[in-house]
Design goal:
The chain has 496 residues and is an all-alpha fold. The protein has 15 helices and no strands. The radius of gyration is 27 Å and the shape is globular.
Length: 496
């Protein structure tokens, strides 16, 4: 926000002779008001970012419910505990290392080197609220991975991979594309952008969803499928035990996505042209609209697509389709028109259905379809942004003072530079996550720390690893000690 400027000598000339003290007094009042406006701007933006953080963090509950409903009842406690530990372990390791690797500045283009343990925070670049917001993103990536390796993974493996992913792998990738020092960031401090544009991955179709999806892909590939999944002709579908939890988790994630995508502006009180009704608050609303339309379109496309293929109206498939649309639009939600979001969701559903068919043919077992949903749809979202990003919105969301004409979507007349940058993003994320998480899972496998024993898998980890089942079906101690008695029609109470 522009500050109010007042000069006592200049004001004295307007007020006449012998008015220097009055002019100084008036200017001091203007300065005080101006400072209050600046303070208010910081307060409003920080409140907006914190509120968005709480929405994103609520997605952990969504992940927990979705995961619990998608696994068999005998593994419910296990998957719920892993979701809790994703947040807890991720919080500690992101505080110690992750935030510094991601956003510590000044640094080089590959990795951050400052602000370990939040040293020297707050700064002019970010406050504590920014750390909290980015932590919520980091644990979301870890939560994606846990779904791919559910129902067969040792508990110690969860702790190791989650800490490594949130403390190093995810922060390095986010540094590349979101930090002011990142080599492919569209907001580089020095203005030296990749292909004159940088990568526009606004809320993380690549940074969050592809990272979590590819990490889960390697974990599931090295572990192998669950017992019984592909051992009989026709591929046995090991269904989750509670569709109600799946739907509840999906709605919680939908709710949280309004902090994930619109919240990625990190500020709301920014005017594009002062004194007009249109500003960054309008872009925040538009981002919520594109997010909604992509998810809704993907859900309906999946509904009818799976009906044609399987002959059923499957609520679980629809929920996954909805989330696939959200994962895809996350990259370009702020720079595309609402009508383009419909295209994004439609294609995302086709990508998800196709990836699931390919996974079946290759005997790849992912209980939550996490790699297909977040990896496949996330990759499509990156390409989609490079095709449909509009010139107006790109220049508003990613302004470059003194350098108008940043490349935008290929189909919108912006040339192919943005598409080239986004193809590079897909390649480097795939390569880096594979080179880090793949060997980690392989070493855990060789050390026999990755997969549980066949006996434990058949019995269920709730009983063998966590002391009992999540659900109690017959508990004599919980039965009431009284019995209901029938009331006679005449209102009298029968005698004992």
């Amino acid at each position: 926000m522009a500050t109010l400027n007042c000069s006592a000598p200049q004001l004295a000339l307007l007020l006449g002779p012998n008015t220097t003290q009055a002019a100084a007094y008036i200017c001091n009042q203007f300065s005080t008001v101006s400072s209050k406006f600046v303070d208010t701007t910081f307060a409003v933006d920080t409140t907006y970012l914190l509120f968005s953080t709480y929405l994103v963090f609520s997605m952990q509950l969504g992940f927990a419910m979705l995961c619990a409903g998608s696994v068999r009842a005998k593994n419910t406690m296990n998957i719920m505990l892993t979701n809790v530990l994703d947040a807890a372990a991720g919080g500690l390791f992101y505080y110690l290392f992750g935030f510094a690797f991601a956003f510590g500045t000044p640094s080089n283009g590959f990795i951050g080197r400052q602000n370990f343990g939040l040293k020297d925070i707050p700064t002019s670049n970010f406050d504590y609220s920014y750390f909290l917001y980015q932590w919520a993103f980091a644990i979301a990536a870890a939560g994606i991975t846990s779904g791919s390796i559910a129902e067969r993974t040792q508990f110690v493996a969860y702790l190791i991979y989650s800490s490594f992913l949130t403390g190093f792998v995810y922060p390095v990738v986010s540094h590349w594309f979101w930090s002011g020092d990142g080599w492919a960031s569209p907001t580089r401090f020095d203005g030296d952008f990749l292909f004159s544009t940088g990568v526009i991955d606004f809320a993380g179709s690549g940074v969050v969803h592809m990272v979590g999806g590819i990490a889960g892909l390697w974990g599931a590939l090295i572990e192998g499928p669950r017992i019984g999944r592909f051992e009989n002709p026709g591929n046995v579908i090991l269904k989750g035990h509670n569709a109600s939890l799946v739907v509840l988790g999906t709605f919680m994630l939908w709710f949280g996505w309004y902090g994930f995508n619109p919240g990625s502006f990190t500020k709301i009180l920014s005017a594009y042209n002062s004194g007009q009704y249109y500003g960054q608050w309008s872009a925040v609303g538009r981002t919520a609209v594109t997010t909604t339309l992509a998810g809704c379109t993907a859900a309906l496309t999946t509904l009818f697509g799976r009906r044609v293929l399987s002959g059923h109206w499957n609520v679980t498939d629809v929920c996954n389709g909805l989330l696939g649309g959200f994962a895809a639009i996350t990259s370009g939600c702020s720079v595309v028109e609402p009508w383009a979001a419909v295209i994004c969701g439609f294609v995302a559903a086709i990508v998800l259905i196709s990836c699931n068919k390919l996974a079946e043919k290759l005997h790849y077992d992912d209980p939550l379809e996490a790699a297909q949903l977040h990896g496949g749809c996330g990759a499509w979202g990156i390409i989609f942004t490079a095709l449909f990003a509009t010139k107006k919105y790109v220049n508003e969301v990613y302004p470059v003072p003194g350098k108008p004409g940043r490349p935008y979507g290929l189909f919108m007349g912006g040339g192919g530079k943005l598409l080239g940058a986004h193809l590079i993003q897909i390649l480097v994320i795939t390569g880096f996550v594979s080179a880090t998480m793949g060997p980690l899972f392989f070493v855990l496998h060789k050390l026999k720390l990755l997969r549980i024993s066949p006996e434990d898998e058949m019995a269920g980890m709730d009983m063998t690893r966590h002391g009992g089942f999540a659900y109690t079906y017959d508990d004599d101690e919980s039965r009431p000690t009284f019995q209901l008695r029938k009331i006679e029609p005449n209102g009298s109470t029968p005698s004992n």
